[in-house]
Amino acid sequence: MKVVITASGPTLAEPIDLHFGRAKYFILADTETGRAKAHDNTPNLQARQGAGVQSAETVANLGAEVVVTGSVGPKAYRALQAAGIKIALVEAVCPGTEALRRFKDNELPVLDKPNSEGHWV
Amino acid sequence: MPLTIAIASGKGGTGKTTVAVHLAAWLAEQGRPVHYLDCDVEEPNGHLFLRPKWTVEEEVSIPVPAVDHDRCTRCGKCAAVCEFNAIAMLNKPLVFPELCHGCGGCTLVCPVQAIREVPRVIGTMATGRAGKIQFTQGRLNVGEPLAPPVIRAVQARRAPDAIALLDAPPGAACPAVATARGADVIILVTEPTPFGLHDLELAIATFRPLQKPLGVVVNRADADRRVQEYCAGAGIPILAELPAERRVAELYARGELLFAALPPWRDMFAKLWQQIKALQ
Ligand code: SF4
Ligand code: SF4
Fold first, then answer.
1. Alpha helices in B104-225 (DSSP H)
2. Beta carbon of B62 within 6 Å of any ligand 1 atom
3. Is the reported ipTM for this assembly greater than 0.95?
């Protein structure tokens, strides 16, 4: 399964970023092969508005089936839903490797509604 | 067309509305046709003093795209052209109306005309009269981020034969600039405090590039002369200094105009009007 982890740096050793729409990196991990690849999301963070929507489009294009993150705003949630991408929630910052392990062990709740307010930038 | 005057301020609470409503009332007393356009659409309050009777209420909307998914070829051009991230390509285009600025770019770019524009209401507009004063007020719906379309709708209602007073939103951001753009002259209302001066400097820096005549009204003027000194240095005329008086605050709190209780204020606005005319 293809999982995107929102991260503050380009490897899974870095702490995860709890804000989906404002994450610096998306790390695409393949749970079958164990391979991981970083996508730099910082250019998207310059957006005047709609960074969450753009982030959702980006992870959809990466081929993600699940996003592991801390919080998702209402617009990004709608976009992820439309793309059929599931959202698994981590409640506190931890290394990406730890978040991925917990996801694989079914320790993370899967979100069924948005859990952070949108922001007008 | 008679003069269009924007009454703006670097920050809220400086007395911008006080100046605007009294200028309107004074002009009306002189028998001049005047139209008060409340462009402070997030917090319109001119009506609290002039108390117009509304005759027309309208909705203000912006055109947002609706995609015909049967016709759409999923080329992604609409999402790519949108500067505001209001369309995301997720298998098919998904529109986020709350992010859309109504620019029409996506409709133009769609190669198969799969996009039609539907109105989305973002605010309301009311028109009426307060005695001889024509009055139009815009109001942005709560939670809506886009003030300029409502401001432009209000300005479009301007009576062509009247002096127009635009009560501008406070600050120096897009809504204030959208208002000032439609004016012939800009009046900045400020207070003689360090904060007032700081915000005035920001406002002057924002409005000067519009290259319109600009003047300052000092409200609650006192012994602090820094605003006047700054304006002298910057070559910006002081149009009026309105004194700090306890009675003014009392009448303001009750939503009453000052002229009946404080006749000298009439002369101050007569002088202000002369100064405004000299600005052009
Ligand atoms: S009308 Fe303009 S802002 Fe709205 S979705 Fe289309 S391109 Fe984006
Ligand atoms: S531009 Fe038109 S055809 Fe292309 S994705 Fe958008 S709506 Fe569909």
1. 105-109, 148-155, 174-181, 194-207
2. no
3. no
